[in-house]
Amino acid sequence: MEASSKNVFENKKVAKIGDKVIFTRQGYSIVGKVTIVKEESVIVYISNMDAKRLKIDTPVTVVAHKNYKVLS
């Protein structure tokens, strides 16, 4: 049987504006709210505490579609 060459994320649910997503960055699991959806990624608003933990200046970060899961 031939292995499928399809991307494992091909059938993944892509987030919509307002969805909550979870992703991992620098060993932390981060939950945030999607504010913008792009072709390959989403812009996510995270808590100020998480932004400090990640050592970023603003509570907004970019997450590729393949790197998050939509929370129900």
Largest sheet: 5 strands, antiparallel
Order of helices and strands: EEEHEE
- Taking the alpha carbons of the first and last residues, their distance comes to 35 Å
Distinct helical segment count: 1
Give, in spatial order, the strands making up the sheet with the most strands. Answer: 4-3-2-1-5
- What is the 3D shape? globular
Strand content: 35-45%
Q: What is the typical, i.e. mean, pLDDT?
A: 88
Radius of gyration equals 14 Å
Protein name: DUF2187 family protein
Organism: Lederbergia graminis
InterPro entries: DUF2187
Pfam families: DUF2187
What does this structure look like?
With 72 residues, the protein is mainly β. It has one domain (20-70). The chain has one helix at residues 48-53; strands at 20-25, 28-37, 41-45, 60-64, 68-70. It has a five-stranded antiparallel beta sheet, with no helix packed on it. A hairpin with a 2-residue loop joins strand 1 (20-25) and strand 2. The longest helix has 6 residues, at 48-53. The chain is globular and about 30 Å long.
Name a few traits of the molecule.
72 residues, five-stranded antiparallel beta sheet, 5 strands, 1 helix, globular
What's the short version?
With 72 residues, this protein is mainly beta. Helix content is 8%, strand content 40%.
Per-chain topology:
Layout: E1 20-25, E2 28-37, E3 41-45, H1 48-53, E4 60-64, E5 68-70
Antiparallel strand pairs: 1-2, 1-5, 2-3, 3-4
